[in-house]
Design brief:
The complex is a heterodimer. Chain A has one domain. Helix content of chain A is about 85%, strand content about 0%. Chain A has ten helices and no strands. In chain A, about 45% of the residues are buried. In chain B, strands 6-7-8-3-9-10 form a six-stranded mixed beta sheet, sandwiched between helices. A four-stranded antiparallel beta sheet of chain B has the order 2-1-4-5. Helices cover about 40% and strands about 25% of the residues of chain B. Chain B has a domain of about 190 residues: 3-Layer(aba) Sandwich (Rossmann fold). The chains are: A mainly alpha, B alpha/beta. At the A-B interface, α6 of A face α3, β6 and α4 of B.
Chain lengths: ~270, ~280
């Protein structure tokens, strides 16, 4: 890539900017095409269900374990802080707010972009270099619809479900950490945790992850679809899928939080 | 008045109108004398003319072998024919239907009448042999699973692989993968079969077996076969008509005997390379 930039007579930084803008434009076109095609027949429901299984069900062990560990750690940190102010009773609520509003959605997005994004990038990249995508087209199948759109929709469905699992795993982890110290009951813990959380407080951050799913699905299928250069290209597509979707996800998250605060000032935690 | 997005009964794709779809289907199944026609087709990559005003035709039920050195545009010609690439200039007709003017839904209909065997078979590595062959049947027909299973066994028996139903593509040899590729390409009983380098990476005995299979297909099923190869003995066995490409242009076309008598140095050099 650098060689291509240096071969050009223009300044390297300008070459990089041009390349970044060009990639952004192509990715945006890809995303818009995916949105348009998603509403056209055939809807590839069987493939969407299969991909939800691959992206969602198979990510459950990772998400549950991570959620549980995060819950335990957050609970310990929260206790250390709350104890100073004699506000131990607020620990469940503080943990729930931290998990539901930001930690759960963002961590789930990053974990899925690592596991699923890399997988999609490598899988489609492998299919591209071994002509399997051309083979699909030759069998009169719209490969874009079958491969790309189905995976994007699957990510959009899987992310909110996984986020919910992450949140509850975190709360259970937090409960176990807390009950060892204070012997609090499960019922009381969950009652305190959800005392100050309304439906919108839960729904908005969780639904935000639909956008995360769109970003992970689109970036990784785009990079897989445009893979060139054999096994090296497949590795590059896989790595770039994780890096770009994670980066984009973190940046877009800032925007989404801002939008939620603007549109739903009462609902946003 | 028909709506713009009226769909076909099988729900395959949206055509501009049902009438347009039916006209296209009727055209594709009308069995004209010429199965394939190229008219001054040009294709450029990065400003370089890979295919330069290519014109040829293949009569229905005949086998045509496109030969030439590596990088002369043989595989590009097949991909143009399948609609995987669009020509920069010229016209391509499949069963009298001009394919480069079709939308994606139209191309789907055209592709249903063609089978494509890729150079390295391009089998779906996440699916078993049986599922690879069943894939087009599940996508494009309303057959029941039992009927699909019977059809898959029949196709695999034709290529001598009925015992390998449950194997994965990675467990097969190169020759076996080619045979599965042929079975998959024939699953929808296409009227045209496109084959890219059938002998690449295969030993001479397996190459002969694949050639025999293609000849049987042509003679028993009246399938039009277009083979891209640089294997001259193979081309002599399969082809009713041979085309020699050089730097994206046709430098000779005719029967094997006619090409043997060619006075063009490149053609003579090419044809004589078989006996070396």
């Amino acid at each position: 890539m650098m060689a291509a930039i240096m071969n050009n007579s223009e300044h390297p930084s300008r070459g990089l900017t041009r390349m970044a803008l060009s990639e952004t434009g192509l990715l945006s076109t890809f995303a818009m095409r995916a949105v348009r095609v998603a509403f056209q027949r055939p809807f590839e429901l069987r493939e969407v269900v299969h991909q939800v299984y691959m992206a969602g069900w198979r990510s459950l062990p990772l998400v549950m374990t991570s959620g549980f560990a995060i819950g335990v750690v957050l609970s310990m940190h929260t206790r250390a802080t709350m104890e100073r102010f004699g506000a131990e009773a607020l620990i469940p609520a503080a943990l729930a707010i931290a998990l539901i509003s930001e930690t759960g959605p963002l961590m789930t997005g990053l974990l899925v972009s690592g596991r699923v994004g890399a997988g999609i990038g490598a899988e489609l990249g492998g299919m591209k270099v071994t002509e399997q995508i051309d083979a699909l087209e030759s069998l009169a199948v719209d490969s874009f619809h079958y491969l790309a759109v189905a995976r994007i929709i699957a990510c959009m469905i899987a992310l909110p479900i996984l986020t919910t699992v992450m949140n509850f795993s975190g709360l259970i982890g937090g409960f176990l950490a807390e009950t060892v110290i204070s012997n609090v009951s499960l019922r009381l813990y969950f009652h305190q945790a959800f005392a100050g959380i309304g439906f919108m407080d839960y729904a908005l951050p969780t639904l935000k992850t639909v956008v995360f799913g769109f970003i992970i699905g689109t970036v990784s299928t785009y990079l897989g679809y445009t893979t060139t250069g054999g096994s090296e290209g497949i590795g590059r597509a896989s790595t770039r899928s994780v890096v770009f979707s994670s980066m984009l996800l973190i940046v877009i998250n800032v925007l989404l939080v801002r939008i939620i605060f603007l549109l739903f000032p009462a609902g946003a935690l | 008045m028909l709506s713009l997005a009226e769909c076909l009964p099988d729900g395959s794709r949206c055509f501009r109108s049902r009438a347009a779809a039916l006209t296209l289907r009727a055209g594709l199944h009308s069995q004209p004398l010429l199965a394939i026609r190229f008219e001054k087709v040009t294709k450029c990559f990065d400003g370089k003319r890979v295919i330069d005003e290519l014109s040829f035709d293949v009569p229905r039920g005949e086998a045509c072998c496109i030969m030439g050195r590596s990088g002369t545009g043989k595989s590009v010609t097949l991909k143009l024919l399948m609609g995987l690439l669009k020509p920069d200039e010229g016209k391509i007709y499949v069963n009298d239907v001009e394919i480069e003017t079709l939308d994606s839904a139209g191309l789907v209909e055209v592709r249903k009448t063609m089978g494509f065997l890729f150079q390295y078979s391009a089998l779906f590595d996440s699916l078993s042999v049986a599922d690879n062959v069943a894939f087009p049947l599940r996508r494009h027909t309303r057959m029941r699973e039992t009927e699909i299973a019977d059809s898959v066994r029949e196709r695999l028996a034709e290529v001598g692989l009925e015992a390998e139903l449950d194997k994965m593509p990675l467990d097969l040899s190169g020759g076996m993968r080619k045979r599965v590729g042929i079975a998959r390409a024939l699953a929808l009983k296409p009227s045209i079969l496109l084959v890219d380098e059938p002998s690449s990476g295969l030993d001479p005995i397996t190459t002969r077996e694949i050639d025999k299979l293609l000849i049987e297909l042509k003679s028993s099923n009246k399938t039009t076969v277009v083979v891209v190869t640089h294997n001259i003995p193979s081309a002599r066995r399969i082809g009713d008509k041979l085309i020699v490409l050089h730097e994206g242009r046709i430098i000779a076309q005719g029967t094997p005997q006619e090409l043997d008598e060619s006075k063009d140095d490149v053609v003579r050099q090419f044809m004589s390379s078989a006996s070396e």
